[in-house]
Amino acid sequence: MHSFGYRANALLTFSVTALAFICAIASFSDKFSNQNPSAEIQILNINRLKKQSYGNDEVSLTLDISADLQSLFTWNTKQVFAFVAAEYETSKNSLNQVSLWDVIIPDKEHAKFRIQTSNKYRFIDQGHNLRGREFNLTLHWHVMPKTGKMLADKIIMPGYSLPDAYK
Amino acid sequence: MDWQGQKVVEQLMQILLVISGVVAVVVGYATESFRAMMLIYAGGVVLATLVTVPNWPFYNHHPLKWLDQSEAEKHPKPQVVAKKRFSKK
User: Fold this and answer.
1) Chain A residue with Cα closest to B39
2) What ipTM describes this predicted complex?
3) Which residue of A has its CA nearest to B48?
């Protein structure tokens, strides 16, 4: 501590180490929050189920998505990324996941919502497996903290199906 | 800065930073504001810098007593005696 530079350096390293500690404590405090998100998805209409000109099946849907993700937000949450994926099994793949819609939720006020929309991203199969297909609609979310590890979870809603013929 | 001042400054720096960190976490958690935590801690770092880094006068209240020039001249420094080197044969 004998010179200005020595003291400045010591203060800088100690303050940055202490900053790392308080960020770790802030991240750890997330474990004490109760999280109970809920969601519901209805398919309002199957607009089109067709075979593309170069071979794969494609379907266009209108969805009614309602969700309450407010309990996921803590003081240490930067944003929540949520997306809806259609999941189904075919003879070719044991699991197909196709993302249909997503949203970035920046704060707690926007986390409870209801939206009716056609699928934001195209629902295209690897093949011709969509006729009569039963599938789950799963709402996934990624909670991105201000400091710490990202957390991902989901709600699986089974029981949806596609028509037996192209329309 | 004298020795006593250096010891005080090291302890003061650590205590100030730890206390501002603890207060920052507690206030931030209580008000659910991450921003509050960061601002309080930044304020604490600035305070610690202002208190401990410059060479304030109160860190120099216990200066070392160096020997007087007149005393030093009465006791000359001992001369270094050159050692004989044994050469290999």
Assistant:
1) A19
2) 0.77
3) A11
